[in-house]
From TrEMBL, chains A, B:
The lineage of its organism: Bacteria, Pseudomonadati, Pseudomonadota, Alphaproteobacteria, Rhodobacterales. SMART domains: Lactamase_B (SM00849). Coiled coil: none annotated. Residues 18-218 form the Metallo-beta-lactamase domain. This is Putative hydrolase of the metallo-beta-lactamase superfamily. It holds the Pfam family RNase_J_b_CASP. It comes from the Bacteria. Keywords: Exonuclease, Hydrolase, Metal-binding, Nuclease, RNA-binding, Zinc.
Length: 555, 555
């Protein structure tokens, strides 16, 4: 066995929260057999990725080694863990293993992308395991904010790794399995080489609260409300959806689910047998006909997404339902950083309708799905690993998690995307740096984050765009004047004349005076026209736009 | 006097936090003499205003009535209250009144915009007053997070209005005047018609904490830190800058100010006599030469601004100073909603350098400058106005503030930008709706938010841009093929051929087959070329770009 090694390589999710993609390998350096844990997505924003549909880890390194990939394991069905299995299927083509609920969501992702589902396998919890080359992998149930979340027991010739996935310590999670310390202790017996552990809430100092603590608060709110109540949360948080639905029924209200994701998740959870006693629901038409105080809408759009049910209801009549004075809207969720503007917009639109908006940052109506600092420490104590590798966090989370581990004597390392870590020895060691990056799904095309496409979009949105066209005849003499079009720029500037006219005049003047040699030099002419257009714009409107020059040469 | 009325008209700051601009008027309807309170700015973002430099209220309504404006009063020197006095000077040309510190900041704004400072007047606190047509206005000192903040006592023939401006109730504000209940009680004697009141923190349930509570916490942190300490806050929060500087000195550290705004604010506060015992500071060069544990940098950029000192220090060596393992960086500030991404980016860059980042959302190292709910109630009790008009808040804040007032029997109204309220009678009544909007400073040009310029920029950033050029000869026959350029779009799509080639082929094919009549019809041809370009792009890359068509017709 000498010369073989066990490696860990995060490609996504380490140094950020989102688009999780972790690789483990075992074998001779450069010949390791590989397994992949999770293939998730993250979401674009106008600051860094305008127009992009979805973001995922760049898997070029994996795709080049496709013949060495034994399998993909998906810990749970959140988008940042399962969202890219369909999109990346074609590049990796490895069998996918997951628990039943996760597999049913993964199947839909594969189908949506025209990928076969024949390579998708449902796995029962550990001690059942899947053999994947030198690895033997089991799913260890955990509490989180979606059913059938699991950590992974990854056995290799170099020892056992416990990969937590996302988790919290919840003994009464409403839906799904309570956290089972005994099970995790059992999996830790005989020694764990590395604990690869969720870091999201390392800055949250208090112990996490159970999902079950919310029911009385929410029921009270629904009972005291006079008009219609609407509540929003992540659809995938099936336990919360159940808590909300039960509270509604207890408060004498019928439940109506709005938003495709909300209906789908409840259906999937019912089909997979995870949600057996969900109250019967009514249609939007039925909801519209009932007295307002007898209705509770459970809706998508807790992050202010523009096309989700929350935003629709905040703006207009939606599926025959209209909110008004006296209604109550509960955000049973927290705002993910970056989504504040969208959520606040929805809140204000609701406020304009006279709706009472409830959003308590203190967590009265929401609990997190991730382990807080004391719950991370509990996991460290249970597993007592040889080394701690924080994942699922920005750099500040990973680095704080290493510090936290060090307080109880654990050896840790901050491993961010692209850092290949050798776990074979006593301490984690950086083996290699891999080019890790992001791939964007843009319309139907995959583009690299660094391809320049998005950079150009951002530049146009900051600076506007001027198009300059000029026709030169067979003798390289101008045929007519220079023609300009602008987009995203003010009509007039300093001289009060139309910007387009001023641009055309300055450019035509230059062309009129230019020597034959200048006009013949394709590259030089383009450059000069661009320079003048930018300079003229700077004088007129105080900004230098992007410029596209088209010189048509008749021949 | 019958037939005359007292009106209140917010043009900015009511229905949003930022770009404050309030109008009061007294006289016969349509002939009221006017005063303006505050002329502030707000800041652009990539989601709604890419490329824009500053945002302010649209003052078209005021500019059309310039001859009726008696004066402008500026309550304090925050950008959202004073930031537009220079930019809008030319359109309003009214005398400006402010207290000394505010006036010195306003003077700089005027100078920067080439406006005269001769119309700027320094006013001493109430009971001194300024006569402005039918109004008599006094500045009533208040505690806030910048020196010499003031509310306004606005006397009119129809009664007294108290306009709070921004305030908190702080009896030990470190710099500036403590909140003086007796003074406000005195100003309220004889009855107050309307209290126009800050609403920012209406959702903060606990009483506000004093600036003075921070000193021991910050001093402790600075003392325990081993390396260099860096602290950031709003430069205009002179009290906080003083608290930080004093704590540094107490912890045996020399203070270095970084960032133009930071140095300027301290200078201005010293020049106006408001800051007399600020510790002496050292230059960046001196700071670099001292042992790290003897240095404290006070820096700009608490909101993650890209070019500010914080972001510079997080990325690189800045003015000879380089942060590293063992240093501590304190955010003595809160993140303004919308700025999360930028701040978090800076935090992670610092974390990558091994710097310990301290940001406590609980407020251990930061207190707000605005009145919390109990402090709003205290103001209601002191003033006991006939009516309550909440301002300085989004719709949800204003509406919650009206609800809060109603709990203690106050008559209120949610008045958002553009709603002219008649205060003359017993109850506030909507008199008229004015077109209120936003004006953007874009480079050196003012554009309207609804002009379409920004909409085009956003569209280009979401969809990319295709430029189509075609030359038609004197007989309307195509001279050469169609030529395309693209910006912000992927190079290749479904067919693997360059997108530009596919576009040119489809467009040339259409032009080749087109009848003479089609090619002659200028508008129709443009439209058809655009349609085909969008359809081809949709097939190839799954998105429909913006298209600019240039058909050159030789004649």
């Amino acid at each position: 066995m000498s010369g073989e090694r066990l490696i860990y390589l995060p490609l996504g999710g380490a140094g950020e929260i989102g688009m999780n993609a972790y690789v483990y390998g075992y074998g001779r350096p450069g010949h390791e057999r590989l397994i992949v844990v999770d293939l998730g997505v993250t979401f674009p924003d106008m600051d860094t990725s305008p127009g992009v549909d979805l973001i995922m880890a760049d898997v070029a390194w994996l795709a080049e080694r496709r013949d060495r990939i034994e399998a993909v394991f998906v810990t749970h069905a959140h988008e940042d863990h399962v969202g890219a299995v369909g999109l990346l299927w074609d590049r990796l083509r490895a069998p996918i293993h997951a628990r039943r609920f996760t597999a049913s969501i993964a199947a839909r992702k594969l189908e949506e992308n025209g990928a076969p589902t024949s390579g998708l396998h449902v796995v029962e919890p550990w001690p059942q395991t899947v053999e994947a080359g030198p690895f033997r992998v089991g799913f260890l149930p955990l509490s989180h904010s979606i059913p059938e979340s699991a950590g992974l027991v990854i056995d290799s010739p170099a020892g056992r790794v416990l990969h937590t996935g996302d988790y919290k310590i919840d003994l009464t999670p409403v839906v799904g399995e309570p956290f089972d310390s005994a099970l995790w202790e059992k999996a830790s017996q005989g020694g764990v080489k590395a604990l690869v552990c969720d870091s999201t809430n390392v800055f949250s100092l208090n112990p996490g609260r159970s999902e079950a603590t919310l029911a009385p608060e929410i029921e009270g709110l629904f009972r005291d409300a006079t008009g219609m109540v609407v509540a929003t949360t992540f659809a995938s948080n099936v336990a919360r959806v159940k808590t909300l639905a039960d509270a509604a029924v207890a408060a004498g209200r019928s439940v109506c689910l709005l938003g495709r994701a909300m209906r789908r998740m409840v259906e999937t959870a019912q089909e997979t047998g995870l949600l057996t006693d969900f109250p019967s629901t009514i249609s939007p038409e039925e909801a519209a006909d009932l007295p307002r105080q007898n209705v509770c809408l459970l809706v998508t759009g807790s992050q202010g997404e523009r096309r989700a049910a929350s935003a629709q209801l905040a703006q207009q009549t939606y599926l025959g339902l209209k909110l008004s004075e006296g209604d109550t809207f509960l955000f049973s969720s927290k705002i993910i950083p970056g989504n504040e503007r969208g959520v606040i917009k929805v809140m204000n639109q609701l406020s304009e309708k006279g709706v009472t908006v409830i959003y308590e940052e203190t967590g009265r109506y929401h609990v997190s799905g991730h382990a807080n600092r004391p719950d991370l420490m509990a996991m460290h104590r249970i597993v007592q690993p040889q080394m701690l590798i924080p994942m699922h966090g920005e750099h500040r989370h990973l680095s704080e998690h290493v510090r936290l581990g060090a307080e109880s004597g654990l050896t840790g390392i901050v491993a961010t995307n692209g850092m290949m870590i050798d776990l074979t020895g006593d301490r984690p060691q950086v083996a290699e740096y891999i080019d890790a990056g992001r791939t964007y799904l843009d319309g139907s095309v995959f583009i690299g984050a660094m391809d320049g496409v998005i950079r150009d979009r951002i530049r146009m949105s900051l600076n506007g765009h001027v198009m300059v066209t000029l026709i030169l005849d067979e003798k390289d003499e101008p045929l007519g004047d220079v023609w300009c079009e602008v987009m995203g720029l003010p009509e007039t500037g300093r001289s009060k004349a139309p910007l387009v006219d001023v641009l055309e005049e300055d450019l035509s003047q230059f062309v009129g005076r230019a020597k034959r040699g200048t006009l013949r030099d394709e590259e030089g002419l383009d450059k000069e026209l661009r320079r003048i257009a930018r300079q003229t714009a700077q004088n007129e409107i105080g900004k230098k736009p992007e410029v596209t020059v088209v010189v048509s040469r008749l021949s």
